[in-house]
Amino acid sequence: VLVHVGFAMSRIDEREAAQTLALLTELGEAQAELAAMRASEAAR
Amino acid sequence: MKYVDEFRDGEKARVLEREMRALMPRVPSVPGRKLQIMEVCGGHTHAIFRYGIEAMLPDGVELVHGPGCPVCVLPMGRIDDCIAIAERPNVIFTTFGDAMRVPGSKKSLLGAKGDGADIRMVYSPLDALALARKHPEKEVVFFALGFETTTPSTALTVLQAEADGIANFSLFCNHITIVPTLRAILESSDLQIDGFIGPGHVSMVIGTTPYDFIAESYRKPIVVAGFEPLDVLHSIYLVLLQLAEGRCSVENQYARVVLSAGNRMAMEAVARVFELREHFEWRGLGSIPQSGLRMRDAYAAYDAERKFAVPGLLVLDPAACQCGEVLKGTLKPWECRIFGTACTPETPVGALMVSSEGACAAYYQYGGVPVHAEAPAR
Q1: Cβ contact (<8 Å) for A4 and B150?
Q2: Contact B15/A16, CB-based, under 8 Å?
Q3: How many CB atoms lie within 10 A of CB A11?
Q4: What pTM did the predictor assign?
Q5: Using a CB-CB distance cutoff of 8 angstroms, which residues of chain B are in contact with residue A9?
Q6: Do B219 and B248 meet the contact criterion of CB atoms below 8 Å apart?
């Protein structure tokens, strides 16, 4: 839970936390793919 | 620590940095100035400086540090009122630590404590209530301040005092609300904000629907954000993405904590104990209609403003202090004529140098002054 000045204010949602991180991982993977594509184009 | 370390991952931060840069050609630029994104909440201001987020922003984007530090926007006169209450012989005055150094017109609460007033720092309003239980011969007053994040805790403490029949406990209520403040910022002619990073903890209480007017009436994007560096970067990216796609909506980046409907129990407790004031005076922003809360008549017995006479004077900030301009984002902290010289965290002149959430204290602590910044000519 998230506690503020001695009061539990919210329950942290594990699934939502994982989704946010997964989204950022996907962005990173897409970037890496794009970079690899550009590199192979440049090599041709 | 879980939910903390994962959101401080440096590799993911660099991914977001590259994504933002790649977006920029699609983001409409504004002639003559940079795009301005305001982080409303002082917690975000602190995170931005602590993690060096400004250095990761693409060219053409700057952050404006908003008024969401409750200690910073409190006018001097209210500190004088606190001291007037605290100096009464029978009072134990309790406060969160970050309000201790805020200067009043003559002294701070810390100064008043040095002069003999019984002023004590507490972590929670419940600690103040415990003091009232322990000292039935004294009047225990709690300095209630903060946005919607903190308001439920003081409301619930008053309800607890009522349930336990504790009569020697009261609040000096300085709670403020976020929506009228955002409206005042959007209506201000000094400010041209292109998008907002919405407050995370306030939204955990009120939800995200109260911000709909920002997208619907003012056509600005707002993204409610968490407080870790990836949260802040991700939210800035989402604001830029909305601008690039010509959209404006309320988005929730902090869905692991914030529900769109907020926390109903917390809001019910607040509505039972508090009502809106017609006006509330803000440091730097002046008087904003319906932006402050007072206690309902049913809880007058717990209202320090009615229990004790408070001077209630309007006191102007010292002439040298430019907190008002910094709060409005029209001046950068280091451009203030007394930043880091007459005004430091040790001897603050303005409130923004006091709290760790204040923009000036954050700049001072984390060295956010860009090397190319020229000394202001005044």
Answers
A1: yes
A2: no
A3: 11
A4: 0.92
A5: 149, 152, 201, 204-205, 263, 266
A6: yes
Q: How many whole angstroms separate alpha carbon B167 and alpha carbon B158?
A: 10
Taking only the tens place, the pLDDT of each residue in B337-373 is 999 999 998 888 888 888 878 889 988 988 755 544 4
Question: What pLDDT digit, counting tens, does each position of B91-135 carry?
Answer: 999 999 989 988 899 999 999 999 999 999 999 999 999 999 999
Residue pairs spanning A and B at CB distance below 8 A: 71
Question: What's the CA gap between B9 and A2, in Å, rounded?
Answer: 21
pLDDT in tens, B306-326: 999 888 888 887 888 888 888
ipTM for this prediction: 0.91
What is the three-state SS of B15-65? HHHHHHHHHHHHCCCCCCCCEEEEEEEHHHHHHHHHCCHHHHCCCCEEEEE
Task: Find chain B residues with C-beta within 8 A of A1's C-beta.
Answer: none
Rounded Cα distance between B163 and A43, Å, is 76
